[in-house]
Amino acid sequence: MRWTTLAFSTFALVALGTGVRSDPSVPESELKAAFAEADKNRDGQIDREEFHARMVDIFFHGDLDKNGFMSADELDAATLIKEDFAAADANRDGRLSLYEFLDARFGHFRSADTDANGTLSLEEVVGFSEP
Ligand SMILES: [Ca+2]
Ligand SMILES: [Ca+2]
Ligand SMILES: [Ca+2]
């Protein structure tokens, strides 16, 4: 359970997050493990369907009080980084719906997909840092 939580967080950190390469506390082996866990069909790429499934998992794991929304604190805890909550909260009601969460995540997916082939390779995930 602990590992799963960590891996979820790690993938969030990597795929969505911030210059993880400069963070020495996240070993590469852990990134690979998180990537492999998300790559359900084991083709070495995270496609949109796999990414979507992963992000839905992260959302529901991160929604600690199970009210169907993520608070700013829950978002930080789920992704281990200080996210731009205000930017993701499209309707400005102070909480993130699953739709808002996914919308922000897929923005990162598009940014990370540097060869624009619609899937993320390990290199693209590892190399991603927020613009
Ligand atoms: Ca895959
Ligand atoms: Ca909202
Ligand atoms: Ca790609």
Low-pLDDT regions: 1-22
Shape: globular
Distance between the termini: 32 Å
CATH structural fold name: Recoverin, domain 1
Order of helices and strands: HHEHHHHEH
Structural class: mainly alpha
**Overall pLDDT metric:** 78
CATH class: Mainly Alpha
Q: Would you report the number of β strands?
A: 2
Describe this structure in words.
The structure is a single chain. The protein is mainly alpha-helical. It has helices at residues 2-16, 28-38, 48-62, 72-79, 85-88, 98-112, 122-127; strands at residues 45-47, 119-121. It has one domain (2-18, 27-127): Recoverin, domain 1 (Orthogonal Bundle), CATH 1.10.238. It has a two-stranded antiparallel ribbon. It is globular, with a radius of gyration of 14 Å. One calcium ion is lined by residues 39, 41, 43, 45-47, 50.
Keywords:
two-stranded antiparallel sheet; 56% helix; binds calcium ion; disordered N terminus; mainly alpha; 2 strands; Recoverin, domain 1; 131 residues
Question: What does the secondary structure layout of this molecule look like, with pairings?
Answer:
Layout: H1 2-16, H2 28-38, E1 45-47, H3 48-62, H4 72-79, H5 85-88, H6 98-112, E2 119-121, H7 122-127
Antiparallel strand pairs: 1-2
Helix pairs in contact: 1-2, 1-3, 3-4, 3-6
The chain binds calcium ion (CA) (3 copies).
